[in-house]
Amino acid sequence: DVKVTQSSRYLVKRTGEKVFLECVQDMDHENMFWYRQDPGLGLRLIYFSYDVKMKEKGDIPEGYSVSREKKERFSLILESASTNQTSMYLCASSQPQFYGYTFGSGTRLTVV
Amino acid sequence: KNEVEQSPQNLTAQEGEFITINCSYSVGISALHWLQQHPGGGIVSLFMLSSGKKKHGRLIATINIQEKHSSLHITASHPRDSAVYICAVKAYTDKLIFGTGTRLQVFP
């Protein structure tokens, strides 16, 4: 069963901490995405990567960075967590030119 | 104005009712997705459409490319259908543009 795995379902961090959210896919997909989901705003794209070591900013990249050292793993980094980064974070992957997307189960991050 | 609009935002139904969720979009697309998100967060892809109609069990999805509109129908709704349903369009890139979702609650 192909899947996208996010390392944590729930995470609580303190303001100012450096936070790593990990995402691993086992489908050999080229594309990987990080979204955040907030009530009334839907899913918004933070960053996406179309190849190893390649990344592109999404709609709301401020306060975030990403790392893709291996094809199967895409990490989202909050350099200095703030309370306005409390949200649900979702990872997804897809293959270029094909239409199917696979989503992870999400990480609910609370910054206190 | 959002590029993808869904209606209604919230929907309640009695078990057995026929349900329709609508999605309108304003950009050119190569495909449209209907996604389901249960409490707890994980998102499952229900349908991917580029034209016409698709059916899977009690779920039916239609798309009208000329009118830039899609509908998701649930026949004989059941409490286990309670979830957030999200419409997302794939423009001519590899990125999706999402609607804000429709929260459906089906009561026994």
Order of helices and strands of chain A: EEEEEEEEEEE
Give helix % range of chain A: under 10%
Helix tally of chain B? 0
Give the end-to-end Cα distance of chain B, rounded to a whole number of Å. 36 Å
Find the count of extended strands of chain A (DSSP E, 2+ residues): 11
Query: How big is the Rg of chain A?
Result: 13 Å
Instruction: Provide the structure class of chain A.
Output: mainly beta
Number of strands of chain B: 11
Report the largest inter-chain contact: A-B, 28 and 22 residues
The mean pLDDT of chain A is 92
Q: What does this protein look like?
A:
The complex is a heterodimer of chains A (112) and B (108). Helices cover 0% and strands 58% of the residues of chain A. Chain A starts with a strand and ends with a strand. Chain A has strands at residues 4-6, 10-13, 19-25, 31-38, 42-51, 54-57, 64-70, 73-78, 87-94, 101-103, 107-111. In chain A, a hairpin with a 3-residue loop joins strand 4 and strand 5 (42-51). With 108 residues, chain B is mainly β. Chain B has strands at 4-7, 10-14, 19-25, 31-37, 43-49, 52-56, 59-64, 69-74, 83-90, 96-98, 102-107. Chain A binds chain B through residues 9, 31, 33, 35, 40-45, 48, 50, 58, 88, 90, 92, 94, 96-97, 99-106, 108, and chain B through 30-31, 33, 35, 40-45, 48, 50, 86, 88, 90, 94-96, 98-101.
Q: What secondary-structure arrangement, pairings included, does this model have?
A:
The complex is a heterodimer of chains A (112) and B (108).
Chain A: E1 4-6, E2 10-13, E3 19-25, E4 31-38, E5 42-51, E6 54-57, E7 64-70, E8 73-78, E9 87-94, E10 101-103, E11 107-111
Parallel strand pairs in A: 2-11
Antiparallel strand pairs in A: 1-3, 3-8, 4-5, 4-9, 5-6, 7-8, 9-10, 9-11
Chain B: E1 4-7, E2 10-14, E3 19-25, E4 31-37, E5 43-49, E6 52-56, E7 59-64, E8 69-74, E9 83-90, E10 96-98, E11 102-107
Parallel strand pairs in B: 2-11
Antiparallel strand pairs in B: 1-3, 3-8, 4-5, 4-9, 6-7, 7-8, 9-10, 9-11
